[in-house]
Write a structure and sequence with these properties.
Elements (H helix, E strand, L loop, with lengths): L2 E4 L9 H16 L3 E6 L11 H11 L13 E2 L4 H13 L3 E4 L3 H6 L20 H8 L5 E4 L11 E6 L3 E6 L4 E3 L7 H11 L2 E7 L6 H12 L1 H5 L2 E5 L2 E2 L15 H6 L4 H11 L7 H7 L10 E2 L6
Parallel strand pairs: 1-2, 1-9, 2-3, 9-10, 11-12
Antiparallel strand pairs: 4-5, 5-8, 6-7
Bound molecules: glutamic acid.
The site of glutamic acid has 7 residues, from loops.
Keywords: Aminoacyl-tRNA synthetase, ATP-binding, Ligase, Metal-binding, Nucleotide-binding, Protein biosynthesis, Zinc
Family: Belongs to the class-I aminoacyl-tRNA synthetase family.
GO molecular function, one term: glutamate-tRNA ligase activity
Length: about 300
């Protein structure tokens, strides 16, 4: 069954921006007859907060969002899928598509890059280390693993594009991005690709702050699972919610979570309606809003929210 997914990180309470993205993931999936999977991205143990998963599930269900089971399981937890990620990483290594990187963040920031290389891309410092150099560096610091992205004969990176329902074509250079962190944990960009593919996800709806990593992810999906299947994936990077200063909404902005809004007299149904209206949809049950939902008519601008009582 083709599926969409909503993939929050259980690092605290969901705020209005997260809930709005979740609602959009539901609308996109249901409007196209897809299942919708709930996946908790809890690989980063330092950020995972006890109880957040339960609370996030309750918030989503309270607004009327429904999710589908996968092989009988009501949700997916990345921390339970370590062997699956390890197998994908091992396959890339066997195919010569991964290399050890010993750089610190600072070294990467300060390294010289090719002219016009996009900021944030890896400068390639460890790409061509000799085995002797690696042995030496291993003694100093544990290695992360990076994807050995394609390069032209002249050493330039390859461009890769995806079509996005909201943003149009997104093109970036394929970077030597991290696939395994230097603490041994699989990297976000790898886990997302592996999960999406192996759980039948062919529709990715998420905040537009993640749009720039999408060509890298789509490239990795093609490499691991075939270009044809990768090209079929539908992407929708949806606008964020901003505070009145134009910054991305955050919990410090006041009453922006379900619990805090409830205290201001806004219950789950009113919260659902607030979000629906912000999307130009009629207030009321989600099934009714679905009838008016047009994925191609989504507002492309962020929604500015002023928390009640602020
Ligand atoms: N876990 C990510 C977040 O909460 C979303 C990742 C994704 O949808 O691919 O921002």
């Amino acid at each position: 069954m083709p599926a969409g997914r909503y993939a929050p990180s259980p690092s605290g309470e969901l705020h209005l921006g997260n809930l709005r993205t979740g609602m959009l993931a539901w609308l996109f999936a249901r409007a196209s007859g897809r299942d919708l999977l709930l996946r908790f991205e809890d690989l980063d143990l330092d950020r995972t907060v006890a109880g957040a998963e339960t609370q996030q599930s309750e918030d989503l269900h309270a607004m009327g969002l429904t999710f589908d089971a996968l092989d009988g399981a009501p949700l997916i937890r990345q921390s339970e899928r370590m062997e699956i990620y390890a197998a994908a990483i091992a396959r890339l290594q066997q195919d010569g598509l991964a290399y050890e990187c010993f750089c610190s963040r600072r070294e990467i920031r300060e390294a010289a890059r090719a002219p016009h290389a996009p900021t944030g891309t890896y400068p390639g410092t460890c790409r061509d280390l000799s085995e002797d150099q690696r042995v030496h560096r291993r003694a100093e610091r544990p290695a992360a693993l990076r994807l050995r992205a394609p390069r032209s004969a002249a050493g330039t990176a390859e461009q890769f594009s995806v079509e996005d329902i909201v943003l149009g074509r997104i093109t970036t250079e394929v970077d030597d991005f991290v696939i395994q962190r230097n603490d041994g944990a699989p990297a976000y960009n790898l886990a997302v690709v592996v999960d999406d593919h192996l759980t039948g996800v062919d529709q990715v709806v998420r905040g537009d702050d993640l749009a720039s990593s999408t060509p890298n992810q789509a490239y990795l999906r093609g490499l691991l699972y075939g270009w044809h299947a990768a090209a079929e994936v539908q992407y929708a990077h949806v606008p964020l919610v901003l505070n009145t200063e134009g910054q991305r909404l955050a919990k410090r902005d006041g009453a922006v979570t379900r619990a805090a809004l409830q205290e201001q007299g806004i219950d789950a149904a009113a919260l659902r309606d607030l979000l629906l209206v912000s999307l130009g949809l009629p207030a009321g049950p989600l099934a009714q809003a679905l009838e008016s939902f047009d994925p191609t008519a989504l507002p492309a601008d962020p929604w500015v929210f002023q928390p009640p009582g602020s």
